[in-house]
Every structure is written in C-alpha cells, then in structure tokens.
Amino acid sequence: MPPGVQIAAAWSWRFMAIVGALAVALLLVIQLNFLVVPLLIAVLLAVLATPLARQLRRIGFPGWLATLSTLVTLFAAVAALVWLVVEEITRDFASLQRRSVEAYEDFIDFLLESPLGVTEAQLTQWFESFLIDMEWNTAWVLSGALSVTSSVGSVLVGIGIAFFALIFFVHDGARIWRWVVGLLPSDARAPVAGASAKGWATLTKFVNVQIFVAAVDALGIGLGAFFLGLPLVLPIAVAVFLGGFVPIIGAFVTGAIAAFIALVYAGPVAALIMVIIVLAVQQLESQVLQPLVMGAAVKVHPLAVVLAVSAGGFLAGIPGVLFAVPVVAYLNVFITYLSRSEWVGDPEAAKWVAPPMGGLRA
After folding, report:
1. Would the pLDDT of 359 be above 50?
2. Of 352, 48, 40, 357, the residue nearest 174 (C-alpha)
3. What pLDDT, on a 0 to 100 scale, did the predictor assign at position 88?
C-alpha cells in the first residue's frame, strides 16, 4: 500500500469520526432545543448583567442583594421601554384607528375610480370569496387551538428555564464554572479555565456591539419617521431597538409597523419611502455593521460572520441566526487560546481552577 494512500486513509477515517461526532452533538442540541435555547439566552443576559452585579458586590452589597438589584434593574429597563411603546400607541390608538379606516376607504375609492374598471360588485364578490376561503371547519380550529396552546406552553416553560438559569448564572456563575472545571483532568483545568475566561470576555464584547447595532437601527428608522413628519416616532424607534435583538422577525415586524403608520398618516408615497429607509437600514446592518463592526469586536473575519449566520439560520432557524455569531466567536477564542498554549503564565487560568470534584464551595 503506497504511503500516500495510507496517510489519506488515516486522515479520512479520522475526519469521518470527527464529522460523525459533530453530527451527533448537533442532533442532540436540536432534540433538546427546548432546554438549550433558554440556557443560551440566559447566558447572553448574564453577560449583560454580571458586570453590574460584580460592581455592586465591590461596593459592599451582599451577594443576594447584588443579584436581586441587578435583575430588577435589567427587567425594569426592558419593561420601561415596552411600557413606553405600549403607552404611546394606546394614547394615539383612537387616532390610528380612525386614520386606518380613512386610508381603507380611500383605497376602495381609488380602486373604484381607477382605470382598472373595478366595480363595487366585484369588490363585494372578492370579499365574499375571501371569507369563504378563510372558513375553518371545527376539527381544524380545534387542532389549531391545541397547537397554539402547546406552543404557548412551550414558550412559557422556556421563559421559566431562562429566568431561573439567569438568576443562578448571575449569582453563582463563577462557582458553577469552577465546579465544571473541577470535573476535568487536572492537566486540562488551567487551559480550559483560561480559555473560558477569554471566551466570556468575547461574549461581553458581542453583547455590547449588539446593543450598538440595535441603537443604530433605531436611530436610522426613527430619524426617517421624524423627517417624514410621522407621529409615534419615539415608540417606532424603541420598537426597532427592541426588535433588533430578535433576528429576522424583529426587523420585519418593526419595519412593517413603521411602514403601516406612514401609510395611514401620510399616504402610499410616504409608506414607500419608509419601506426604502427600513430596507436601507437593514442592509447597513447586515452588510456593514454585522460583518465589519461585529467581526472586529469578536475577532472573527467578516466572511466567517456571514457564513456563520447563514449556516445557523439553515440549521436552526431564528435561534441559529441569534446564536451563530456568539458561538463561533467563543469557539474561535477558545480554540486559539488552547492552540497557542496561552494559559502558561496566565493568572486568570490559575484563579479559575477548582479542586477535583470539589462541589460548589464558597
């Protein structure tokens, strides 16, 4: 057997073994997505909340009080933003409803008076056909209701898992990770501890840059609504900011809201301009901010960012898009740290090492 063939065969079966192991791991993650997704969300929220908790402990707060204060501050900030959007829309709801009816009537009048030759009878027939197509039989409605109930239940369970995981990650994250590291062989503890610390710092940069990207989206679309003279500019901007953390759906929904408000208050031309502004801002995010700014912050090449987001969306949908960049960034720093033996002389590695099987000790 020629040496080249032996080497190729050795590489081939090892490569197949690695690919098989990765495929099994990915399959397990997909099967346990109801658990994995909430835990990953809790990790990203913990990255955002942990610096405040540490600062409170440094100035003398007890551990439980620092955790409680941090979580209350985090949720209060999110709740305040949501309340601002809801309160502003509720206050102008009557006007929005009236303008929506007027816009609908104007659209019907436009169709009746247009060169298309549409008659009122045709509009009535189309509407009745639409209602017939939308008729649901009892069995389908019951099946849909059960499906919705099941989905709502799964979401509530996921929120509960993420909430409790976040509490423990913020309060006891360091001790939990020391315990995990303590399960490893003694020679592996320092490398893994140092690499995980570097990975955590990279996740912190990722969260900060994600906030910056969402703020740019909100500023761009908010300014567009302002210069078009639209009402509800602040709720639109806040909704875009919050939606910026939800890939695909967030941008689509908030952009649709902005375009709808432009349509009912300023007409189809303003709505078209608003759509162009939303698309331009989203292109700026996807083509410039995400690959270049995000890539530079997490030390991942812009091409890798684009490929990771695409692959994540293909494999896991919206959760894959959301977690693709932080996972790739973490693995990049983790593997680079290990390959360069950077734990040698790294004080962070020694600080994070725990005794073997030592349990969760203070």
Report:
1. no
2. 352
3. 78
Give Cβ neighbours of residue 294 (< 8 Å, ≥ 6 apart): 206, 209, 210, 213, 300, 305, 325
Helix/strand/coil for 356: coil
Note every long-range contact of 155-159, with CB atoms under 8 Å and residues 24 or more positions apart, other chains counting.
157/34, 158/34, 158/37, 158/38, 159/38
Residues 6+ apart with CB under 8 A from 124: none
User: Could you give the dihedral angle defined by the CA atoms of residues 145, 151, 156 and 158, in that order, rounded to the nearest 10 degrees?
Assistant: 170
What number of H helices and E strands is found in the chain? 13, 0
- What is the distance between the alpha carbons of residues 257 and 246, in angstroms, rounded to a whole number? 15
CA–CA separation, 52 and 264 (whole Å): 43
Neighbours of 353 (CB within 10 A): 18
C-alpha to C-alpha distance for 12 and 309, rounded to whole angstroms: 28
Distance CA 167, CA 68 (A): 8
Q: What is the pLDDT of residues 34-61, one digit of tens each?
A: 888 889 889 989 988 988 998 999 998 8
Query: 337 and 198 in contact (C-beta within 8 Å)?
Result: yes
Q: How many residues belong to the chain? A: 362
Eight-class DSSP state of 184: S
Asked if pLDDT for residue 182 goes beyond 50, the answer is yes
Is residue 72 predicted with pLDDT exceeding 90?
A: yes
Burial level of 295, CB count in 10 A (0-12/13-18/19+)? buried
Query: Greatest CA separation found in the chain?
Result: 84
Residue 357's pLDDT band, with cuts at 50, 70 and 90, is very low
pTM, two decimals, is 0.72
CA distances from 279 to 183, 274, 309, 321 (A): 49, 9, 19, 19
